[in-house]
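hiii so my PI (J.) wants the whole complex modelled not just the main chain, which honestly fair. so below is everything: two entries, each one labled with what it is. i double checked the lines twice but i was tired so who knows lol
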Amino acid sequence: MNDERYFASVDFIDDPNVAGRGYWYECPIEDVERGDEVLAPLGRHSRLQLGVVRQTLRARDAEAPYPVYLIKSIKDVVKKRQGEYMMYKIIEKRSLNPTVTMMDIFAPLVAKKALPGQFVILRSDENGERIPLTVAGCNVKAGTVKIIFQVVGATTIKLNDMKVGDCLADFVGPLGRATETEGIKKACIVGGGVGCAIAMPVAQKLHELGCEVHSVIGFRNSDLVILEDEFKACSDRLTVVTDDGSYGRKGVVTEPLKEALEKGENYDMIIAIGPLIMMKFVVATARPFGVPVTVSMNPIMIDGTGMCGGCRLTVGGQTKFACVDGPDFNGYEVDFDEAMERGNMYSDFERHARDKACNLFKKEAE
Amino acid sequence: MAIRPNKHEMPVQDPKVRARNFGEVALGYDEKTAVAEAQRCLNCKNRPCVAGCPVNISIPEFIGKIKTGEYEEAYKIISQSSSLPAVCGRVCPQETQCEQKCTLGIKFEPVAIGRLERFVADRHNATNEGAAQVPVSNGKKVAVIGSGPSGLTCAGDLAKKGYRVTIFEALHVAGGVLVYGIPEFRLPKAIVRKEVENLKQYGVEVDTNVVIGKTLTVDELFDMGYEAVFIGSGAGLPRFMGIPGESLKGVYSANEFLTRNNLMKAYEADSDTPVMHAKRVAVVGGGNVAMDAARTALRLGADSVHVIYRRSMEEIPARREEVEHAEEEGIVFDILRNPVEILGYRNPEDRRDPKNGFVTGIKVVKCQLGEPDEKGRRRPVEVPGSEYIMDVDCVIMAIGTSPNPLIKNTTAGLEVNRRGGIVVEESTGKTSKAGVFAGGDAVTGAATVILAMGAGKTAAKAIDEYLCGSRAK
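here's the output for the full assembly
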């Protein structure tokens, strides 16, 4: 009968609070069967969590095992009873603005370990390039890692074309050192553009640690604003600026920062994450006030484990490797001009990739 | 029958042709040549060649089987000692190992042991598809960190003894330096894949995308039920000279340049990974890695490739065969030269000129050989005032690596030396931490494939004694 629905009872065996109980869900995925491991929303906040299907049932609304107007749905399958884990499956995908996308990727080992400031290296497909992306958050119980990326080159174009349910070819991490948060009582988080995605988990962690967090986030225009609500939730004070004034305050991030410093805000640390030019000017702004600045560097990388040396930077006159020594560095010691130059080494290649992709779009449109 | 004084020539791709493609340079013996070369072996009583081999392959025995046409038997003899015969037949420095000790070599050229090993392995891989006999499991789990030559060897030896071995590899494919470092034209990647497949047939599992020291720690491996751990994580961070200009665009470490090409296939037109197709390339260093980088640059379409080495051709550490192949292909050796600065483009009018920061040249100083250093190698001494500039648009630094810090930073109780190499007992590979063994470049710093294999083999034996010896007690 076509007015029957499919239901599954899920046991969240790894969660000591609920293990052993079965929770009924509607199951939109037809081939789910007993023994499969699935992600399903649990609790008041409906956070996804990993559980095992204990029972399935086909029933009409009236005979449903749980009131149909209250029942939640299973999100996705990550392991069939007889199979292996569907590693690096895209569980969630959301567009934050026309060029920035957020994804939750199933990678339990990474989710368990990743801390704010660390990054992963991924390949979208078998012939793909290895690219570094900073971890924007984790759900340990679901085994998922959040990434946020801007579509700039061949790989991010391909990544952006992938759908929920697809699997990435590779996803390795967490790499790099976590952002140092110890001893910080009051901090200013400065995020620029897609850098806000990296700044957000740092702000969240500081907030959780009881630190006073002031955030300044900047974008080119109102269409590109991302993560405002997330920042609001973890900041004691939030200032949003846009270059053209189409949203929030008009101007660049250094202006509110300078005002705050002039007003005598005694930050223990300024954490700046965004375009190199922005971080360079945050350092210049903070210098007269003698406030320490941590910056997060995101240079070109290949292996990300300290083998190739492609991510080298000059910090304090010494060659450092962002992948193992960073990605966070003392902003006063980083040679930003050199980093900016190195960053555009393959810009021709990236432009070429974008043009190629655009031509494909054109063909499809014709 | 008179003994043929010379080795049978190895058929190779014509230098002019191969300098523009990534196909394998040396083509391998055919059956007739292999048998004829095998006939040159005197089968002498004291078998000095076996002692010259770091993994002690029973060389006269396998050559004997080639003489009689029993190639599969020959393969079995080699695989008793070596887990990667097709690799070793290609990349071992036989001229300083087994072949150097060959009795025939006293009067004539030694037997071409390496070429014969390659013949046997290739023939096996081409004809044999049958599954290997999986040994009976002894129920003990061993973790191997890194799937390079030492890790593969250690895993293979332990699996054949019945251990359940899992290899953890940080990159997305298994093989370590065999896939990211050594180029396709010297060691086709299909051969590495095949050797890894052979190991999987013995029950070895390979977990890619796991960085030990990050994704998991050594202590967590023990918590997961592994009773012993072998660290074969390889060499690490590339060294630079510390001269001005090393951050310019167009300066690569050899590791990065080779990784882009070998692992990421940047030389293929449809690869997503970019690499500079430079026209005039300078490679700094004189080891095998420098040769690989120089010859790769040539194949990417460079008009000229110069190897800059501070000593003379006599001291050059690369294998003679690699140097000869490089010279045949048109690589220029600028010996007794040392770089002092790398020069870059800077448009004084326009700070935003996209050409800014790209390499335009390298300033080198001439050297003379002075007194021998502690290793007996003559020290290069710079000649004052002899600097000159070479026009290049790409510089590749191939001057070695320093050990990777990830494992030592996250493993309490693991002792490392001043240079960051893991300290081991040489005869067993035992580290300062119980149940943890190590070998290969992670211990010695950059060395050869076969030395790493030897270390993997030593450790496998010691791990077996450690685990099964303790059971016996």
